[in-house]
Amino acid sequence: MFGTFALYVEDKIVLILRQKKEHTADNGVWIATEIEHHASLKKQLPSIRSIRLLGKGPTNWQIIPESSDDFEESVIRACELVVKGDPRIGRIPKPKKKRSKSSRK
Prior knowledge:
Blueprint: E1 5-9, E2 12-18, E3 28-31, H1 38-44, E4 49-50, E5 62-65, H2 71-83
């Protein structure tokens, strides 16, 4: 997925692993969530923040930056939440729109 690795649980995207040479501040583990869950997730994953590449202000996606002092511990904690089926993590991607025959030419 765009030079990253996406992790799904059934039909939900839960995490994206990113390590690129450009925009290195956003390298790390991206967490699919909703804005209303940020505060409660931050209590368990203190280093999470919004992804700068996605624009200013809060975004649904959060990141555990690979530069964080607690990176490994936070990623393990996030994975444990995913395994337990934490409803704060995971989003069902919007279905792709089918291209019409005229737009394929």
